[in-house]
Amino acid sequence: PLIPTPDYLVRLNPEQRRAIEITEGPLLILAGAGTGKTRVLTTRFAHLLLTGRAYPSQILAVTFTNKAAREMRERVGAILGEPAEGLWLGTFHAICARMLRRHAEYVGLNSGFTILDTDDQLRLLKQVMEPWRIDTKRWPPNQLLGVIQRWKDRGLTPDRVTSAEDSDFANGHALAIYRAYQERLTALNTCDFGDLMLHVTEILRTQPNVLAQYHRIFRYILVDEYQDTNTIQYLWLRLLAKRESGPSNIACVGDDDQSIYSWRGAEVENILRFEKDFPGAQVVRLERNYRSTVQILAAAAGLIAHNDGRLGKTLRPGRDDAEGERVQIIGVRDSDEEARVVASAVERLRGNGHALSEIAILMRAGFQTRPFEERLMMMGLPYRIVGGQRFYERSEIRDCLAYMRVLAQGSDDLAFERIVNVPKRGVGAVAVQKLHVQARSLNGPLTAAVRSQLSGGALKGKSREALAGLMDAFDRAFAVVETEGHVVAVEQLLEDSGYLQMWRDDRSVEAPGRLDNIRELLRAIGEFGTLPEFLEHVALVMDMEGDTSEDKVSLMTLHGSKGLEFDTVFLPGWEEGVFPSQRSLDEGGNRALEEERRLAYVGLTRARKRAIVLHAASRRIYANWQASMPSRFIEEIPAEYVEVSGQTSENRRHASAAPSMFATGPLTSSRPSGFRPPRPKVTALKSGPSIGVGATVFHPKFGEGVVTGAEGDRLEVNFENGGVKRVMASFVEIRS
Ligand code: ATP
Ligand code: MG
């Protein structure tokens, strides 16, 4: 009592302080979103150092993402008043990579080993599979890689795979191939990502001296987001924490309601097992949420109450100043309007002095970013995609664009070169080199060289067949443009060229998302009258980068938003089949649906002050529109915490009278004045308002200018800074 409480503890509530002051023995901090779990972990780190219980190098702190690791390092540094260095602080994989470098010899590697990426992994596995003569159509190597990864996630080296866990994949040869694959990796002094944890865990299991060494080093272990650990991570933690003598000083923080990675092998049961595995474990519950307003909190609590089998936690508002606004539910017509409403609201928030960095748009799936990106870009609102790439920069999108560019203009050599061997057609660098030579002598493009070589018989065997097939695909698609339109043509081209099949055959976790992106791309093309128009649009959109401001709106997936917080959170696409996802609905039963609901809970609880949920009445599937139902999660939020606006019948049912800044915006006035939105539908093409010669327009890139010529949707504009340019009408605002 005589010693004053240090400053960094004063700012905590009694339970949080308890969670920090119980320094010895196993500790589980079980608490809902925004209760300060991560803050407790960070403060605990500093506390251990400041009270002389450990040196920085004696604390092992595991975070879920590299970003979280960086933040924790900064927060610890701030509390300590100096940069924290030499820490064992990072993701499971990062820490394991460092450990494996020290002990590589125990698993037959040397410390200079390399880590393979997915492509190399697959190439190697294919080589290894050869002697088995597996029918790779039936048993795609990618899928086998998945089987192997799941074994690794569960800590199963080839020797530990029992008959019960064996897979009948590849006619029962999976295990033998797994063994051969591991042997080959070792022979090459390399390992894959999954091996980082597998090897280290194996070393800790079998080398008592190494384990003892780490028991001496790590006096304290801290783990964030414990609910999302998988089996191997759990085994690894348990090995490190359970010491021969002395207590297990392991503190894990988690929230069963935020377990959202079961699809990657995470086992929420690890939380339930904690007290059994670590006898004498203390459990601290934090109940005060300091992040969100009362309204948001109550809405999120009401939603998650629909899940069964929860551990049950109380969540009370921690700030007494924060009654806040209700959760906004906005019904819109379609995804264009959705993007428009969100972007306008963002602009209004900025106008009212809110920082863009305090605004996030969180979606269920990566492909959903596209309409928001385009809209934000057009309005000059800077954004960043967190944990991913901008839509038009994603590699599968770039591939598809290259196909389209060749279709639109056969002389686009750069585009042709990108796709000539994607998917793999056996057209190697040498063949392409020859094409270049021929093209030069013909003084024409690569496609002309191909045609000339095909007719001249210069090409042989596999590459002849491959190139002939590719050119056929282009020719057929070209004919289809005239008859059935460019959307069908592009889709057929991607099909005939084998490009779509390439991703269908790909069993990596990213593949379905890539196909979703491509579908979204096809939707986007449908919004334009012709392929060249669309390509011009894309070129412009991609060109509009270059803003270096730090203050940006964050776009990311719900999964990627875990642990983060923002003043304002937009949650678009709350519709059955989008969120909850179609996959979760198809699976039937409650398991997948409950995980979606947890994801919704994660989304809502990212918001400090404002949460805005949107749902569209219909979504475009190519040129058609499909009606969609509002997500059941909307219904599940207790009515007293929401405020509904928009025009769908679903909304009218419990529409509230109180207007809000979001309800009165573009929905009632339809669109911000003076701004001409891009044509939302093909049908609107001919009827849309036209911009005449003499009009003053504003273009996001070239600034203000006067229209000097107009032809359909193409304008010739004399810009103040930039001179005369041809641009698309959908890209300019009318100023007068
Ligand atoms: P999540 O479950 O989303 O990961 P969390 O439990 O880790 O959330 P934190 O991110 O640590 O929660 O904290 C949420 C917010 O509340 C942060 O802005 C944090 O600074 C603030 N906070 C935590 N504890 C207190 C406190 N005692 N007083 C004031 N603010 C607090
Ligand atoms: Mg956290």
Structural class: alpha/beta
In total, how many beta strands? Answer: 24
Query: Distance N terminus to C terminus?
Result: 73 Å
The fraction of residues assigned to DSSP E strands is 15-25%
Mean pLDDT: 85
Principal-axis shape equals globular
The helix content, as a percent range, equals 40-55%
Number of helices: 31
- Ions and ligands: adenosine-5'-triphosphate, magnesium ion
Side by side, the strands of the main sheet go 13-14-12-15-16-11-19
Q: Would you identify the regions where 5 or more consecutive residues have pLDDT less than 50?
A: 648-689
Q: Could you give a short account of the major beta sheet? A: 7 strands, parallel
Cα-based radius of gyration, to the nearest Å: 29 Å
GO biological process, one term: recombinational repair
GO molecular function, one term: ATP hydrolysis activity
Catalytic activity: Couples ATP hydrolysis with the unwinding of duplex DNA by translocating in the 3'-5' direction; ATP + H2O = ADP + phosphate + H(+)
Family: Belongs to the helicase family. UvrD subfamily.
Provide structural commentary.
The strands form six sheets. Strands 13-14-12-15-16-11-19 form a seven-stranded parallel β-sheet. Strands 3-2-6-7-1-8 form a six-stranded parallel β-sheet, sandwiched between helices. A five-stranded antiparallel β-sheet has the order 23-22-21-20-24. The longest helix is centred in the middle third of the chain and has 24 residues. It is globular, with a radius of gyration of 29 Å. Helix 10 runs parallel beside helix 12 and helix 17 crosses helix 18. Strand 6, helix 12 and strand 7 form a beta-alpha-beta unit. The relative contact order is 0.10. 45% of the residues lie in helices and 15% in strands. The protein contains 31 helices and 24 strands. The protein is an alpha/beta fold. The structure holds adenosine-5'-triphosphate and magnesium ion.
